[in-house]
Structures are given as C-alpha cells and as structure tokens.
Amino acid sequence: MHSGEAQAPTAEALMRSRYAAFAVGDADYLLHSWHSSTRPARLRLDPGQRWTGLEIVATEQGGLFDSTGTVEFRAHYRDGVGAGSMTERSRFVREDGLWVYLDVDKP
Question: Which residues, in sequence order, are CB contacts of 99 under 8 Å at separation 6+?
C-alpha cells in the first residue's frame, strides 16, 4: 500500500495515509512520514488494536501552497477491551518539499 516517501499533496491527505498505515501496521511508512526533529527511533504498533474508522473534524491551512497545517481528527478502534475512539489535532509541516507529521497540537 505505502511505498517510498510520503508524497501527499495536502496535510489532510497525509493524515489519511498515516491513518491507513496505522490500520495495516506499516510502521516504516509512519516513520518516513514523520518530521526528522520529532521522529522516534522506532515505533511499536499494538497488534491487538484494530483501527475501524476515521473522521476529519477540521483542517487549518495544509493546502497545496501552504507550509504548515493542522488536521483535527477522530479515529475509531477496537481492542481487547472493546470499541473506543481518540481525538487529536495533528500538526504538519513541509520538510524538503514534502508534507510530514510534526506533532500533536497541545492547547
């Protein structure tokens, strides 16, 4: 599904591709689409967590001609305990011309 570098045209498109990578367990893609200053050395995904849906709540900037963007989303999952969801405001920036995930926007 994911190969090479992330080449999403917008921050929202990258958010959607990162969600899909979580859903299929593609840690390499997640690391490659993470900003070099905040990227962890490795990423362990929970094999017992199954991602079941994504809702984009809001976006700010992150378009074709922007250099930064924020995407607020709600991701739904199932795990050994049951169904749940998480909401997050993710910040994205361009690094070497490509959109990458930077971090969580904390109020």
Answer: 6, 8, 9, 10, 11, 13, 14, 33, 62, 69, 92, 93
